[in-house]
Automatic annotation (TrEMBL):
<comment type="similarity">
    <text>Belongs to the SdhE FAD assembly factor family.</text>
</comment>
<keyword id="KW-0143">Chaperone</keyword>
<dbReference type="InterPro" id="IPR050531">
    <property type="entry name" value="SdhE_FAD_assembly_factor"/>
</dbReference>
<dbReference type="InterPro" id="IPR005631">
    <property type="entry name" value="SDH"/>
</dbReference>
<protein>
    <recommendedName>
        <fullName>FAD assembly factor SdhE</fullName>
    </recommendedName>
</protein>
<dbReference type="GO" id="GO:0005737">
    <property type="term" value="C:cytoplasm"/>
</dbReference>
<dbReference type="Pfam" id="PF03937">
    <property type="entry name" value="Sdh5"/>
</dbReference>
<dbReference type="GO" id="GO:0006105">
    <property type="term" value="P:succinate metabolic process"/>
</dbReference>
<dbReference type="InterPro" id="IPR036714">
    <property type="entry name" value="SDH_sf"/>
</dbReference>
<keyword id="KW-0963">Cytoplasm</keyword>
């Protein structure tokens, strides 16, 4: 993969989209709108933050997406908060 930015590499974009597929339809819908709007503009920092969010369970992720909870601990950094805000606003 080298130093090719995420937005320039169709394979990396496809992998991230596949990884974002969730068990809950509500999460899937949010991610589909997110990728439709932002996929080609994501920075490497955005992809890293998104990857960290995708490591959460579906229910924990939904709570963050619907602003029922705010990121805590390792997730409470500027990159995750920025991507989470983008997800919440699609």
């Amino acid at each position: 993969m080298g130093d090719t930015p995420h937005q320039s590499d169709p394979l990396r974009r496809a992998r991230l989209r596949w990884r974002a597929r969730r068990g809950l339809l509500e999460n899937d819908l949010i991610f589909e709108r997110f990728f439709s709007r932002y996929e080609h503009d994501l920075s490497d920092a955005d992809v890293g933050a998104l990857t960290r969010l995708l490591e959460l369970s579906d229910n924990d992720l939904m709570d963050l997406l619907l602003a029922r909870k705010e990121p805590e601990g390792d997730l409470a950094d500027a990159d995750v908060r920025r991507v989470l805000e983008m997800l919440r606003n699609v």
